[in-house]
């Protein structure tokens, strides 16, 4: 993980191999070089299908089409047309030193809520993992039938330094647990984080 990169870090790829006649690999690679070589570029970005996407906002939404990646809840800062960069948003200015993080925890589980989910799954997951990301419905929150078990499990987890993160399964616009009474109470009572408009 890299924070505050004053230099550009560009990630790209292709939907078809570079030796195919109708490949997007050559265009994506050239666009990536153009963006990386520009003196105004910095930060971590994906360059794909002529679009520049902030790394933390990128999501692959198509398996075969050339426009495979989208920017979620954030505009494209730039596009590349005819080998020229058209910037919509000025590049971010990094004033702090670049930081590299080499340790990442693998003790994380993503739980996608489904109707009728057995509440005991919460006991199992929080017993096994340090962090559970819960993808809920709509604007996020805990369904009423899970609330009692969620409170029980979260009280035990606090003492063990474990963490719950509330997210939504909905791709656009993000979560807001304060909209409904159940979610509002859970957020106020328990020590958890909410993802808002962050991608998973």
How would you explain this protein's 3D organization?
- This protein has helices at residues 25-37, 120-128, 144-159, 181-189, and strands spanning 2-3, 8-11, 43-48, 51-54, 58-60, 69-71, 78-81, 84-87, 99-100, 108-112, 131-136, 163-168, 192-194.
- The two termini are 15 Å apart.
- The strands form four sheets. Strands 2-3-4-7-8 form a five-stranded mixed sheet, with helices on one face. Strands 10-11-12-13 form a four-stranded parallel sheet, covered by helices on one side.
- α2 packs parallel to α3.
- The protein contains four helices and 13 strands.
Strand and helix layout:
Elements: E1 2-3, E2 8-11, H1 25-37, E3 43-48, E4 51-54, E5 58-60, E6 69-71, E7 78-81, E8 84-87, E9 99-100, E10 108-112, H2 120-128, E11 131-136, H3 144-159, E12 163-168, H4 181-189, E13 192-194
Parallel strand pairs: 2-3, 10-11, 11-12, 12-13
Antiparallel strand pairs: 1-9, 3-4, 4-7, 5-6, 7-8
Helix pairs in contact: 2-3
Name a few traits of the molecule.
single chain, 4 helices, 24% helix, four-stranded parallel β-sheet, alpha/beta, 200 residues, elongated
- How many individual helices? 4
Radius of gyration: 20 Å
Shape: elongated
Taken in chain order, the helices and strands follow as EEHEEEEEEEEHEHEHE
Q: Write down how many β-strands occur, each being a DSSP E stretch of 2 or more residues.
A: 13
| Secondary structure: helix percent | 10-25%
Strand content: 25-35%
Distance between the termini: 15 Å
Mean pLDDT: 90
Structural class: alpha/beta
Biggest sheet, in brief? Answer: 5 strands, mixed
The main sheet orders its strands as 2-3-4-7-8
Unreliable parts: none
């Amino acid at each position: 993980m890299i924070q505050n990169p004053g230099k550009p870090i560009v990630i790209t790829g292709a939907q078809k191999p570079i030796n195919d006649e109708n490949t997007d690999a050559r265009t994506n690679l050239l666009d990536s070089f153009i963006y990386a070589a520009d003196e105004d570029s910095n930060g971590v970005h994906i360059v794909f299908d002529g679009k520049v996407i902030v790394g933390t906002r990128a999501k692959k939404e198509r398996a075969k089409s050339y426009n495979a990646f989208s920017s979620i809840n954030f505009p494209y800062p730039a596009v590349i047309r005819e080998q020229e960069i058209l910037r919509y948003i000025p590049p971010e200015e990094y004033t702090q030193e670049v930081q590299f993080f080499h340790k990442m925890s693998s003790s994380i589980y993503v739980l996608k809520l489904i109707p009728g989910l057995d509440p005991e799954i919460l006991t199992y997951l929080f017993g096994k993992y340090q962090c559970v990301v819960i993808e809920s419905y709509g604007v996020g929150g805990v369904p009423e039938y899970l609330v009692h078990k969620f409170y029980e499990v979260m009280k035990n987890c606090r003492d063990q330094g474990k963490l719950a993160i509330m997210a939504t399964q909905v791709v656009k616009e993000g979560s807001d647990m304060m909209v409904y009474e159940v979610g509002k109470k859970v957020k106020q009572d328990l020590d958890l984080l909410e993802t808002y408009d962050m991608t998973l």
